[in-house]
Design a protein that fits this description.
The protein is mainly alpha-helical. It has six helices and two strands; from the N terminus they run H-H-H-H-E-E-H-H. A two-stranded antiparallel sheet has the order 1-2.
């Protein structure tokens, strides 16, 4: 039996549409994370929300944070809103930071994390997600659509 190849995507994005944002700060960050696929609907492991929340708050003061500082601030935030201390291991905090970095929402500078260039999330989303990731993914999907039309057109079927 031969090797089974894996279909590994070059890029991947999940987008969801929710109601208009009218909620408070943590719930707003949560809905954003759900909207861009950083959090799955019904997922109780939502520490990525708190990691992003902490970094958004730090942006106000142009503050860069070490992963342990992020962890401590996440713990304080979760305590303040009576959330269980789940997903707060240092390794998981670093994993969530990597996920945010992979989406280009945050960046590192000498092991310190910050919102990318201290920019507004709207600017980062437009520049990195809409204009870079989404355009790239949509362009490739269009290639597949065009190729499907060519492969399964009436002329092609008549030839077979």
């Amino acid at each position: 039996m031969g090797k089974i190849s894996r279909d590994t995507p070059l890029a991947e994005i999940t987008l969801r549409r929710y109601e208009k944002p009218t909620m408070g700060d943590r719930e707003l960050v949560r809905k954003f994370c759900l909207s861009v696929g950083l959090l799955q609907p019904g997922d109780s492991r939502d520490v990525v929300v708190d990691v992003l929340h902490v970094l958004l708050k730090a942006r106000k003061d142009r503050e860069e944070l070490h992963s342990e500082e992020v962890k401590n601030k996440v713990m304080d935030l979760r305590k303040s809103v009576n959330l269980p201390m789940l997903g707060i291991a240092s390794s998981n905090i670093r994993r969530q930071l990597k996920r945010l970095k992979d989406m280009h929402f945050i960046e590192t500078n000498a092991n310190l994390y910050r919102i990318t260039e201290f920019n507004q999330i709207s600017e980062i989303f437009e520049e990195k997600v809409e204009n870079f990731i989404l355009k790239s993914v949509m362009g490739r999907v269009r290639d597949y659509v065009k190729r499907l039309d060519e492969e399964f057109s009436e002329k092609k079927e008549e030839e077979n």
